[in-house]
Amino acid sequence: MNNTIEEATDGPDRRSLAGSKDKTARTVIDKLVGDIVKSVNPLQIILFGSAARGDAGEYSDIDLLVVMPEGVHRRRTAQKLYREITGLGVPFDIIVATPQDLEKYKDNRGLIYKSALKEGIEIYGH
């Protein structure tokens, strides 16, 4: 995860992710991250998938791995985010995990964590 958010969102292919000439992917991602931080105060947010790889197209979604503290109910956290985040104008997918989940499953090719950690770009962390 040595990339930056600018690398993930610069260029014409990434702008099409927003689905509108008025919104850039960067603006959409910034709003999404802001909404997530305000709602659940995550430890870290990682952008992955086509937006992180740089091959997002017009119909691509935004894939985010939201890392929460141990003990947080992952499914309820994801449900809360999907209920509260509106008005983006672009589809998004949120995966909620804990640091323990990531450590335990980071090498499991059958789970999304491995590719998210390999290709992902940290766009929020404290």
How would the global form be characterised?
Answer: globular
- Structural class label: alpha+beta
**DSSP, total strands:** 4
Number of helices: 7
Summarize the structure.
This protein has 126 residues and is of the alpha+beta class.
Structural write-up:
With 126 residues, the chain is α+β, with helices and mostly antiparallel strands. It has a single domain (5-125), classed as 2-Layer Sandwich (Beta Polymerase, domain 2), CATH 3.30.460.10. The chain is built from seven helices and four strands, in the order αααβαβαβααβ. It has helices at residues 5-9, 12-15, 25-40, 50-53, 74-84, 99-105, 112-119, and strands spanning 44-48, 62-67, 92-97, 121-125. The chain is globular and about 35 Å long. The relative contact order is 0.22. Mean pLDDT is 84; it is low at 1-22.
Provide keyphrases for this structure.
four-stranded mixed beta sheet; 4 strands; 7 helices; 126 residues; 44% helix; Beta Polymerase, domain 2; alpha+beta
Topology overview:
Elements: H1 5-9, H2 12-15, H3 25-40, E1 44-48, H4 50-53, E2 62-67, H5 74-84, E3 92-97, H6 99-105, H7 112-119, E4 121-125
Parallel strand pairs: 2-3
Antiparallel strand pairs: 1-2, 1-4
